[in-house]
Write a structure and sequence with these properties.
Number of helices: 10
CATH superfamily of one domain: Alpha/Beta hydrolase fold, catalytic domain
CATH architecture of one domain: 3-Layer(aba) Sandwich
GO molecular function: potassium channel regulator activity; serine-type peptidase activity
Number of strands: 36
Shape: globular
CATH class of one domain: Alpha Beta
CATH topology of one domain: Rossmann fold
Protein name: A-type potassium channel modulatory protein DPP6
Helix content: 10-25%
Distance between the termini: 76 Å
Main location: membrane
Radius of gyration: 27 Å
Membrane topology: Single-pass type II membrane protein
Strand content: 25-35%
Subcellular location: Cell membrane
């Protein structure tokens, strides 16, 4: 028995280590001789036998079986510049959402891999302040809005016999002058599906590429006046690859477009595919889970705040009939996830919407907040000992990256539940315009005007809560992180109906404050290509809004080596806060990255946030505003 034991860290900014094979015999090092003292970036088994690939210095090595000499099959890599089989920063964070950028064919005879070239992408430098007399910097390529993007190409290499590298040809379309590759999946041992997305992210072309010739045939094209959502989801193929299922936005009357399953079938002796939808309605399919060819049934996950496991006939003949497989299986559970066996004969069903261990948990209420032409999902967390006669502080938590979901019937324990359970607060969340799983009409409303509509919807949820007798109107706060940090900063100065301050305090963790300073793929998706029309970028800045924070407590938290949302965002924000004489506090984490890899740092972070809100919510005698200003003048 042989064990692969790589000491691998998936954070691309951290040095990688060596790889060893452990068996009942002595361990065998796989470090290739030409890369002494190299950094291991990846190692993984293939689909057949003991196949193994590993990546050093952005070059790919292949080992047919343990004990055989590894060969270098891709040698064009350049550390920090040209990536083979791995994502650069932008692709890992915003496009593929994984550090892996290679894909085995089902029979293990071929390997598809992406080559990502960062040579023209501007360099960002992350400072390291501790550990040496002089601070050092770590450079890496980071494309901001309007700047040069990485280029990408997709290749296939044969692993049996002499290595032959073949590039898959991108669509010949003027709209694809610059493009992303958002999805790659093998359909058969010789056919690979590839999704190409324009840089503006409003045109996508799904192709099926021949791995023996490099020729790619268009199977489906999508276009949007706003942006295309859910572009990295994989289709589900039949065994022969002639039929595949994918999710796309389909018009559903006056409700706009919703995401439903479409089947594409190749016809014998015909160059045209038959494309038809097999689900419909004003609800979203959240994921295609499996396709059972014997039964002709497609299994899917669907729901708004809940998630049910459903089956649907894969036939395009007759009426659509959705059958719920998870309903009534577990009492009081409405949120499920599932994992299917390769044959689709069996699946694991997991209930994720029910508290465990019999412990008292915050009580969760679901409701709706009225907005312009829509009713939006709201979730309210109350202490287990809640009574209508008491008065509770209120915390609004915003985390609304476009297309995401904050309100779900899913059980989880976070620092927010600690604030509710241990400190007697009420927490409210609202999925406003721009949130996911409610159709594209609601999703696309925030296009080119981030912040303004979300503020209206979140404030509508707060106004709804302030009508409740149990909410203490003098103790109201807001929190958000990342894009939610942008929203919490944007919302904090909001005025009530009497033009008074709504929020007593607020906090932002790693806030985005200016989208032209943020990643190109993210900013350009929602605000358009920077340089063509910059008005949307100017209108979304938070700096002009923070001048009126004199009377509110504001906690900003940011790591100085944040590789995703640079500390530059907070530096720009603080400059404006100082000009506006704002009452703010800053908590920094020296040399820490965006994701806080240390458990002790996570604990410190959550403790800092909880302590800030506990202090903000503490009932205390306050000086009249006039007296406070007089004392300030005397000083």
């Amino acid at each position: 028995i042989t064990f692969l034991f790589p000491t691998i860290l998936i954070d691309w900014l951290i040095d990688y280590l060596s790889i060893y094979l452990f068996s009942f015999r002595d361990p065998q090092s796989l470090d290739p001789p030409e890369v002494s003292n190299a950094k291991l970036q990846y190692a993984g088994w293939g689909p057949k036998g003991q196949q193994l690939i590993f990546i050093f210095e952005n070059n790919i090595y292949y080992c047919a079986h343990v004990g055989k000499q590894a060969i270098r099959v891709v040698s064009t890599g350049k550390e920090g510049v040209i990536y083979n089989g791995l994502s650069d920063w932008l692709y890992e964070e915003e496009i593929l959402k994984t550090h892996i950028a290679h894909w085995w064919s089902p029979d293990g005879t071929r390997l598809a891999y992406a080559t990502i070239n960062d040579s023209r992408v501007p360099i960002m430098e992350l400072p390291t302040y501790t550990g040496s007399i002089y601070p050092t910097v770590k450079p890496y390529h980071y494309p901001k809005a309007g700047c040069e993007n990485p280029s990408i190409s997709l290749h296939v290499i044969g692993l049996n016999g002499p290595t032959h590298d073949l590039e898959m040809m991108p669509p010949d379309d003027p709209r694809m002058r610059e493009y992303y590759i958002t999805m790659v999946k093998w359909a058969t041992s010789t056919k690979v599906a590839v999704n190409w997305l324009s840089r503006a992210q409003n045109v996508s072309i799904l192709t099926l590429c021949d791995a023996t010739t490099g020729v790619c045939t268009k199977k489906h094209e999508d276009e949007s006046e706003a942006w295309l959502h859910r572009q990295n989801e994989e289709p589900v193929f039949s065994k022969d690859g002639r039929k595949f299922f994918f999710v796309r936005a389909i018009p559903q009357g006056g409700q706009g477009k919703f995401y439903h399953i479409t089947v594409s079938s190749s016809q014998p002796n015909s160059s045209n595919d038959n494309i038809q939808s097999i689900t419909s309605g004003d609800w979203d399919v959240t994921k295609i889970l499996s396709y059972d060819e014997k039964l002709g049934v497609c299994t899917l996950s669907a729901g708004l705040t809940a998630r049910c496991l459903c089956s649907s006939s894969a036939s395009t003949v007759g009426t659509f009939n959705r059958q719920c497989l998870s309903c009534d299986l577990v009492e009081n559970c409405t949120y499920f996830s599932a994992s299917f066996s390769h044959s689709a004969d069996f699946f694991l069903l997991k209930c994720e919407g029910k508290p465990g261990h019999g412990r008292p948990a915050p009580r969760c209420w679901a409701g709706e907040a009225a907005a312009v032409g829509a009713y939006l999902p709201v979730q309210i967390l109350k202490p287990a000992t809640f009574t209508d006669t008491a008065h509770y502080p209120l915390l609004l938590v915003v985390d609304g990256t476009p297309g995401s979901q904050s309100v779900a019937e899913k059980f989880e324990v976070t620092w927010e539940t600690v604030l509710v359970s241990s400190h007697g607060a009420v927490v409210v969340k609202c999925d406003g315009r721009g949130s996911g799983f409610q159709g594209t009409k609601l999703l696309h409303e925030v296009g080119r005007r981030l912040g303004s509509l979300e503020e209206k919807d979140q404030m509508e949820a707060v106004r709804m809560m302030l009508k409740e007798q149990y909410v203490d109107k003098t103790r109201v706060a807001v929190f958000g992180k990342d894009y939610g940090g942008y929203l919490s900063t944007y919302i904090l100065p909001a005025k009530g109906e009497n033009q008074g301050q709504v929020f007593t305090c607020g906090s932002a963790l790693s806030p985005i404050t200016d989208f032209k300073l943020y990643a190109s793929a993210f900013s350009e998706r929602y605000l358009g290509l920077h340089g063509l029309d910059n008005r949307a970028y100017e209108m979304t800045k938070v700096a002009p809004r923070v001048s009126g924070l004199e009377d509110q407590q504001f906690l900003i938290i940011h790591a100085t080596a944040d590789e995703k949302i640079h500390f530059q965002h907070t530096a720009e924000l603080i400059t404006q806060l100082i000009k506006g004489k704002a009452n703010y506090s800053l908590q920094i984490y020296p040399d820490e990255s965006h994701y806080f890899h240390s458990a002790s740092l996570h604990q410190h972070l959550y403790r800092s946030i909880i302590n800030f809100f506990v202090e903000c919510f503490r009932i205390q005698d306050k000086l009249p505003t006039a007296t406070a200003k007089e004392e300030e003048e005397e000083d």
